[in-house]
Amino acid sequence: MTNQTLESKRETQEEIWAMFDQIAPRYDLANRLLSFGQDVLWRKNITQAIPNESSYDVLDVATGTADVPLSLVKNKKSIRKVYGIDMSSEMLKVGTRKIAEHSLENKISLSLGDATDIPFPDNRFDVVTIAFGIRNIKDTKKALQEMKRVCKPGGSVIILEFSLPENPLMRKFYLFYFQKVLPVVAGWITGKKDAYRYLNSTVMAFPYGREFSSLLQQAGFIDIKTSTLSWGIASLYQAHIGHSV
Ligand SMILES: C[S@@+](CC[C@H](N)C(=O)[O-])C[C@H]1O[C@@H](n2cnc3c(N)ncnc32)[C@H](O)[C@@H]1O
Fold it and tell me: Residue 52 is part of a domain; what is its CATH number?
């Protein structure tokens, strides 16, 4: 696919899943190198947002190569089990291999599943997480509704996603790296420069900060907290599900 076609058309959800299938074998390597290892620390913020007491069942939506489930079970004793769903079978294959390498099959279970039609019953999980996934899901509202549906009353949803630095100088520097350098280097690593061009364009278009918090509010979440990470390159949103009266 050329840049021209990528810029002139909007990808369908199926094309986005196919893109992840293609980059899956080198996705982790590209993440580590291109974020200078920051992506690991950003995911650790999800772990830190989960309380230590109790025994939690967690659903990780758009789990990809299972980095969030692995970080959760390795760093948090209060996690009973993590279930991960994704629509890219190749990303899940890489994740399944990593889980086996760490002998964590009893703590993490991966399956094919769509964020807009989550294959679990209502009120099933204590915590629902999603890292760098929400902007890749075409129907954001439906995905948020589904995450809320499968979370228990009193439970929480934790969302990690890219955002843009507020500081103008930092933003300029970051955008240069992100738009000009990153797709080229990602192209060398994965052989799929166009996929990264697309992925970067989604960061520019996706709401963040107050705008994203108001989407959470509209979806019915309460007690919404936002924290910015690494000068605002990423943001962590924590939202709760109220007890119905
Ligand atoms: C940028 S990756 C993030 C993967 C992982 N969470 C991480 O932290 O590295 C985005 C993932 O979203 C998945 N995805 C996109 N749309 C989805 C949907 N509707 N349902 C489930 N997964 C989806 C893609 O297949 C891809 O694995």
Answer: 3.40.50.150
The count of structural domains within the chain is 1
The verdict on residue 195 lying in a domain is: yes
* Cα gap 223→155, rounded to integer Å: 11
What pLDDT, in 10s, does the model give residues 159-206? 999 999 999 999 999 999 888 888 888 888 888 888 888 888 888 889
Q: What is the pLDDT of residues 2-23, one digit of tens each?
A: 333 334 357 899 999 999 999 9
| Cα–ligand 1 centroid distance for 70 (angstroms) | 15
Measured in Å, residue 2 CA sits from the centre of ligand 1 at: 23
Q: Measured from the CB, is residue 108 less than 6 Å from ligand 1?
A: no
Rounded Cα gap, residues 7 and 194, in angstroms: 10
Contact between 183 and 169 (Cβ < 8 Å): no
Nearest atom in ligand 1 to 16's CA: 15
Cβ of residue 17 lying under 6 Å from some atom of ligand 1 = yes
